[in-house]
Amino acid sequence: MLTLHHAPGSRADRILWLLEEMGLEYELNSMAFHPKDLKTDEHKARHPLGRVPVLDDGETRLFESGAIAEYLLSRYGDGTLRPDEASPLFPQYLQWFHYAEGTMMPPINTIVTHTILLPPERRNQEMLDMAQRLAGKVLVPIEAQVADKDYLIGDFSGADIMLGHAMVVCGRLKLVTDNHPNLKAYIERIKGRPAFIKALGS
Ligand SMILES: N[C@@H](CCC(=O)N[C@@H](CS)C(=O)NCC(=O)O)C(=O)O
Predict the structure, then answer these.
(1) Quick check: CB of 65 below 6 Å from ligand 1?
(2) Domains 2-76 and 89-200 share a fold
(3) 153 CA distance to ligand 1 centroid (A)?
(4) In this predicted structure, what is the pLDDT of residue 202?
(5) Which fold has domain 2-76?
(6) What spacing in Å lies between the alpha carbon of 109 and ligand 1's midpoint?
(7) Relative to the CA of 164, which of 12, 22, 28, 189 has its CA 20 to 30 Å away?
(8) Whose CA is nearest to atom 1 of ligand 1?
(9) Residue 3: what pLDDT?
(10) In this structure, are residues 153 and 93 in contact, taking their beta carbons and an 8 Å threshold?
């Protein structure tokens, strides 16, 4: 049995959404996105930094949302939500899948840290401004990529779980503006998917 250790509003939402897209059975260990749940000895035994997501599959345990997504698709996907390695779409799939954690999330992490997580007296306006400028630049290629496609590589794929989730977060942080009409439409498409609604609500 698969068990997802999850906290709502975190990157663990990616995996909850993916499990629903794949129609897999799973158990959910729902925790608060708060040190009182994440920094316990029990959870730090699962993830050395006390973070989410963590997935258990029998004796196998892994953390890192991208690794978990690739694991689920490789082991249980039966070719769905990922182009075949021989397909010309496969390199594009890899690129946009990894753009999420590699390029998009670093400025988002800084923005969330300096607007929500840190107490007001420890927030740094210069770091926030820099991160907001960088996030604006990082969004440009994604806006172009979904100009003529419903999803990042055409059909919905694991890349949309990874980067689509980051776009939903960018929407919440008001980083997606009237300068991003394609991204706005992309986010609405994602939020309208039945598996997204089942996993994460509207
Ligand atoms: N690159 C990791 C990042 C994991 C991560 O930072 N998770 C955040 C939630 S989005 C977390 O658990 N933060 C709690 C903390 O650091 O105390 C992944 O994609 O899984």
Answers:
(1) yes
(2) no
(3) 26
(4) 74
(5) Glutaredoxin (3.40.30)
(6) 9
(7) 28
(8) 64
(9) 98
(10) yes
The pick from 51, 54, 71, 163 for probing ligand 1's pocket by mutation, whose C-beta has the most ligand atoms within 8 angstroms, reads: 51
Over the stretch 59-69, which tens digit does the pLDDT of each residue have?
999 999 999 99
Mind listing the pLDDT tens digit for each residue in 95-148? Answer: 999 999 999 999 999 999 999 999 999 999 999 999 999 999 999 999 999 999
* Percent of the chain residues topping a pLDDT of 70: 100
Q: CA 34: distance to chain centroid?
A: 19
Q: Which two tokens stand for residue 147?
A: 């100009």
Q: What is the residue with the minimal CA distance to atom 11 of ligand 1?
A: 51
- What is the CATH class of 89-200? mainly alpha
Sketch the domain layout of the chain as residue ranges.
2-76, 89-200
